[in-house]
Amino acid sequence: AAYTPPNLVLSLFLMSLLPILRFSARAAATHRQATARPRGLYSMLTRGLASTPPVRTPERTAELERLAEEHNGFLFGELPLKSGESRQREDWEYTYIPMMTSGFVLYAIAYLCRPVSSMDEWARERALERMAADAEEE
Question: What is the pTM of this model?
């Protein structure tokens, strides 16, 4: 009998198993899709870790109706201004816009002036140094 290396025997054995492995992988994927509940951050935040949504109780409904009556539906509970009135700003609003603008400008300057850390740039500098050294030797 001719000698066959163990790697060849193993590879032939694995090749014979490929159709079975493909079928079982497809079956597992189909089963996962059929039985899976939504996953991800959005699902976790909206539904929590429970598998079913919470039941709306009469107490919860009454609480939500009370909150809807208490809040007028406008942002931060502010009523629309009458014609001719101007909105009074809070103290923190005067500093918010200049501070945020200066923060963005400082970040842009720091980003544009950052040191070169690309491998390509480093290699280009080294190649130019070597080419200059070779030119001096000749």
Answer: 0.36
What distance in Å separates the CA atoms of residue 49 and residue 35, rounded to the nearest whole number? 16
Using the Cα atoms of residue 31, residue 34, residue 35 and residue 40 in order, give the sign of their dihedral: positive
Q: How far is CA 42 from CA 27, 84, 106, in A?
A: 28, 43, 34
Q: Which of 5-14, 81-90, 120-129 has the lowest mean pLDDT?
A: 5-14
The mean pLDDT of 73-93, rounded to a whole number, is 84
- Rounded CA-CA distance 136/130 in Å is 10
Cβ-count burial 98-133 (b if 16+ within 10 Å, e if not): eeeeeeeeeeeeeeeeeeeeeeeeeeeeeeeeeeee
